[in-house]
């Protein structure tokens, strides 16, 4: 295996089921980590149970558990001498990616997640935003529906040529969902999310001081690759800018992966729960493999 | 419109089963017509699309993904057997599949 690129997913839609077992196999006290997050942030995920109480429908707890598992995976890989060439991230995967590159500590990453969630929740809690994943239509197909139906929605993430994430108010998203189904979408999923992440609707004025209060941000110790502009993030100032821009900028995950493949990356490791990134990668052109944790450790 | 031969049917069957065996990390002998793509294999719609792309290239088909989506709305595919049948129909009818009842 070449030196791989670590990819960090946003949050988890479906667990593989073996995530906690993998972590425990390497001597990490998973329950202690759950308590650490509670003590550090006040977000109580101590009753997490991958089979019976996995917080898939709880926006904040889902993010926190995804962050925890992703960080532990990163530690395990490094402990097995599997170290990344590049590190990249989709959406809220930024925080575990920054932990992996030693730009932020584990505790600070959890604090940032909580602060960001609280800031955005305050801004959008009563506005009924939803996120919809559409598979099987092109960007033009979706734009045509939005225009035809005069819907106030925004394509915020391109996963690949056949898969997009759209945000909008609940009513518009429901109309889009039905129209996309009639248009021939293969699959439609509404995410359990109420914040229009990566949307221009987000007003981040004043966020910087609150998010970074008491947080030490260091230069990345590995090559950190932006999914916003496909450039390397090589100092702490750029890390802070990326954290903020990541909130309200559209993401082209397809372009990010193709740019990495063009840089010579052939091996990717999905460093987080589930296998959503591996699934998305099916429509990327190039000679590459995406491995899950269970294939490597 | 392509005439469907036994050779094509066998070819489609082999490609579909080999594909799911590899992607879902199961043995080919664990997959049969009744295997549920989503419940038994943890498959997803992107696998579905990838297979369609594969057949598009192999048989030089004129078929839009949207057409398949519309067809699937009326004829949902849940099992490997249903998927094989649909792939054969796609090869046979291409975009005209939408006109089949």
* Name of the CATH class of chain B: Mainly Alpha
The backbone outline of chain B, from C-alpha atoms, is globular
Task: Kindly state the percentage of residues in helix of chain A.
Answer: 40-55%
What are the segments of chain B in which pLDDT stays under 50 over at least 5 consecutive residues? none
**Biggest interface:** A-B, 17 and 17 residues
Radius of gyration of chain A equals 18 Å
- Main beta-sheet strand count, sense and barrel state of chain B: none
CATH topology assignment of chain B: Non-ribosomal Peptide Synthetase Peptidyl Carrier Protein, Chain A
Structural class of chain B: mainly alpha
Mean pLDDT of chain A, to the nearest integer, reads: 95
Distance between the termini of chain A: 13 Å
Number of strands of chain A: 11
Q: Unreliable stretches of chain A, pLDDT < 50, 5 or more residues?
A: none
How many β strands of chain B by DSSP? 0
Distance between the termini of chain B: 17 Å
Oligomer: heterodimer
| Spatial shape of chain A | globular
Number of domains of chain B: 1
Q: What number is the mean pLDDT of chain B?
A: 92
Structural class of chain A: alpha/beta
